[in-house]
Structure formats: structure tokens, C-alpha cells
Amino acid sequence: MAISTDLIIYVVVFIAVLLLVEGIYLTVFGKSISLNSRVNRRFEMLEKGGNREEVLNQLRKEMGQHLKSRQVPLYSILAEKAQKANIAFSPVQLIGIMALLAMISFVGLTVGTATSAPLRAGVALGMGVTAVFVWINNKAKKRMSMIEEQLPEAVELMVRSLRVGHPFSSALTIVSKEVPDPLGTEMGVIADESAYGRDVGEALKDMAERLDMQDMRFLAVAVSIQQQSGGNLAEVLEGLSKVIRSRFKLFRRVKAITAESKWSGMFLSLFPLGCLLVILVGKPDYYDTVKHTAAFIPACLVVAGFLVANIFIMRSLVDIKV
Q: Are residues 292 and 268 in the same domain?
């Protein structure tokens, strides 16, 4: 019973620190930083009295700060995902939050469990780092999914703006006002950069590389070619919007077709670990008769190797490239 109680405490503490990260984030940067918010963060910063140039510099700093810190030890595993999630915390602040969460986890485990101090410290450190990683990973997936869904609508809005006579820079400004975050703020930054003299094609290309998004690269290339060779940009973007929407539908269809296989693979990968956990909770002395034998450790390593190989094999079977 003691093992099951400790396990429940571990899970509760981890969930608590995971929720605490989001709470700190919303408290520091406001509700508009949330991907669920209907308030455009760029507009909120301007309405609070921020100068247009200052807001632009702040947003550009947030958008580029994580990839510049990829050389920091251990932080490199977070840098790319933090960049895609556009986490407003700086790398130093994220590392500080990991340390803070680790200390909070240590206090919670000290109060709730009777395990040794070195074990509590190791588990607490793992919880602090893992909670931040899981939070950033979820943010990145959600934000990229929303941008992919918003992009066809944004391109179609550009087409309509161009056809009524607006220049492309004005079309970008309209998109930044009409399309909600996260794409609204991204386009607003490009519109501001264009107003201060930066080449629009170059700004779109940098955005595509920063987000590592193929559809955005198509948009950047289309705009760059039109700037160099001329032509009807509205027709080019109309065709591009159809391609992007078709690609989006295909990705969703593939995702729906492979959903059952992915869940089956996940279940088969986690089922042995679940069985082991149930055995340890229900009968902690189940392995006492064999754990001191010479073959026990090698057998555990072989089983662990098969489990790890199973995870990679299952993942490769359902990872369909489109």
C-alpha cells in the first residue's frame, strides 16, 4: 500500500508543477499569451500604450531568442520546440523555472513521501525538467497546428485584399487584424517590418525557416518571385491557397486513417510497463525469489532493450510521410 500511495503522490506533484508552469506564464505575460485567447497579443501590447517600434522589437526578440541559445548545454533539446511554441520566457528564465519547479517538487515529495533525500532530489529535478519540456512540447504542437489551419484562410484574405486594389503590405496588415493569434501576431510583425523598410519576401522566408513550415515557404517563394519578375500576385496566391488547403486536408485524412494504428502502437508499448506497475503495487515481493539470481539483471536489460526497440519500431510503422 505504501508504494501505491507514494506513486499517487508522485503523479499529483507532477501534475501540480505542470499546471504551475502555465499559471506562471499567464500571470507574467497576461491572458493574451494563451493560444485560446481571442485577443491579439500584438494589439493588446499596443493598446496598453506601447510604442509600435518597441512592441515590434519585443516580439522579434521573443521570436528569435531560443534558436540563438541552442549551444547552451541541455537547453538545446528545448530550443527548437520553444521556438515553434514562441515561448516568451527567455532561455535563462526557463532554466530558472525548471529549478523553481524542482525545488517545489522536492518540498512536495518531502512532505508526502518518506523516500531518501537523494532519491527525492533526483525525482524532483526530473519532474522540474520534464514538466517544462512537456508544457513546451504541447504548446508547440498546438501552435503549429493552429497556424497550419489558419494559413489557407489568411492567404485567401490576401487574395481578396489584392483584388480590391490594396498593395501587398496593406493585405498583410488586414490579415494581422482579421486573423486571430497565433498567425495574426506573426503577420502583424511582418507588416511592421515591411513598414520600416524590410523586404517582405525576406521576412516571410525568415518566418518559414523559424517555424520550419513548408506551406509558409511556398508563400515566401511565391511573393519573392512576384517581386522579382512581376505578374498577377492575386492569381498566384489563389492557386497557392488551394494547394495549401488541399495539403491540409490530405494531412488530416492521413492522420485520421493512422489514428487507430498509433493508439494500438502506444497501447502495445505501454502495456508491459503498466503490467509491471500493477505487479509492483499489488504484490511488491513478487520478484523477491529471483532478483538475487545471476540472470535477473541481464534479463531485465534484455527486456528493457526489447521495449525500447518496440517503441521505435511501432513509431516507424505508423509514421507516414506525405
A: yes
In a 3-state reduction of DSSP, which class is residue 155? helix
> Whose CA is closest to 143, among 86, 80, 200, 228?
86
Domain count, the chain: 2
Task: Give yes or no for a contact between 188 and 169, defined as CB atoms under 8 angstroms apart.
Answer: no
- 129 falls within a domain: no
Render pLDDT for 83-109 as a digit per residue (tens, 0 to 9): 898 899 988 899 899 999 999 999 988
Yes or no: say if 235 and 156 are a contact pair by the CB < 8 Å rule: no
**Tens of pLDDT, residues 2-41:** 445 777 788 888 889 989 999 999 888 887 787 776 678 8
The verdict on residue 119 lying in a domain is: no
Dihedral (Cα; 91, 96, 99, 104), 10-degree rounding: -130
Question: Which domain covers residue 195, as residue numbers?
Answer: 147-251
How many CB atoms within 10 Å of residue 190?
Answer: 22
pTM confidence score: 0.81
DSSP code, position 118? H
User: Does residue 9 contact residue 114 with C-beta atoms inside 8 Å?
Assistant: no
Q: In the predicted model, what is the mean pLDDT of the chain? A: 85
- CATH number for the domain spanning 184: value is 1.20.81.30
Q: How many CA atoms lie within 13 A of 88 on its CB side?
A: 20
